[in-house]
Structures are given as C-alpha cells and as structure tokens.
C-alpha cells in the first residue's frame, strides 16, 4: 500500500511542507489549481516510470508517452528549476516483504539566462 508521497519541483508544486500521508482512502480537497491533480499525476509518473525503467523498451515507451502528454518533459518541472523529485513510500501488506521507497528524479529543466 502506498504510505506517503513527497514532491519537489513538479508542475505547479515547488515543494511540499512535508510528505503527504496516504491511507486506504485519501481525499484531496482544495481550490481549483491548488495541485490536487498534480499529486495524482506525480504518483502515476513515479510508479509507471520506476516499474518500466528496468526494461529498455518499457523505458523508451514510458518516456515517449510522457513526452506526448506533456509535449516536453520540461513541462513537468517547476518553472525556473533544473530538476524534479518524486518519492513514494510503500508499506507492503505481506509482512515477508520489506517496506521501501521508490522515486524518480528528472534533470534538465529550464536553462537560466546569464
């Protein structure tokens, strides 16, 4: 089960004050444009990217899908930042499995003008 998410420099989210704790049922409440959909997209991005990145074919496919959806991976990175980070903490229900974190970091955002 997904236990928490931490986001930095993803779309309109500069940085969370603290990781968002999640449970079996989690409700995101906020005004329009407050980042609710961005949180869901961050979960999707981190989960799909980390699952597919071990396989070169899946890695290329995941990057192509994300590039088409956002026109450029640069559109995922908070404006003016060089990278984004998403970290998911996973609590396995099967106690034989160890709890772990998985994350994604994308680099190569906006170039700063000198």
Spans of 5+ residues with little confidence (pLDDT < 50)?
110-114
Total number of β-strand segments?
5
- Which CATH C-level class is it? Alpha Beta
Q: Can you tell me the number of structural domains?
A: 1
**Sheet with the most strands, sense and barrel status:** 5 strands, antiparallel
- Class of secondary structure makeup: alpha+beta
> Secondary-structure element sequence?
EEEHHEE
Second CATH tier, the architecture: 3-Layer(aba) Sandwich
Strand content: 25-35%
Mean pLDDT: 77
Which range best describes the helical content: under 10%, 10-25%, 25-40%, 40-55%, 55-70% or over 70%? 25-40%
Distance between the termini: 45 Å
CATH superfamily: P-loop containing nucleotide triphosphate hydrolases
- Figure out the total of helices: 2
Could you say which overall geometry the principal axes of the C-alpha atoms support?
globular
Radius of gyration: 15 Å
